[in-house]
User: What shape does this take?
Amino acid sequence: MIKSFFSFIKRGNVIDLAVGVIIGAAFGKIVDSVVKDLIMPLVSIPGDVDFSNLYVPLSSKVPKGLALVDARNIGPVFAWGNFVTVVINFFILAFIVFVLSSLVQKLVKKQEAEAKAEPPTLSKEEILLTEIRDALREQNQRLK
Assistant: This one.
């Protein structure tokens, strides 16, 4: 079981996946910071910079003006500001992934086009073998 575990870990796909998850987590933090620190102050309600703390109390126990974390500890709240922030995070991240995947697809298509454009050069042995093959086909056609 230990041998198969180590052979599983040694595979390139597992390492690639681990690197992708780590980079994705770090990239998620960057996108979160862009949304919270750069975008939301520009689109937030004037005077209320922390858009993610906006909520509507669903209980009379929750006084207005508390931070969202404190309000949630007291009673139920409709945290619409936090939801909007998370949705904006998602769309920014989805757009960036879309742009990156489009760039990768263009690069792959470009490489495929370059590979098709250049005819493969044959070695002397391959040319000789091709001539022998063609001669044998021709001889076989005459015998039929």
Remarks:
- Residues 80-117 form the longest helix (38 residues).
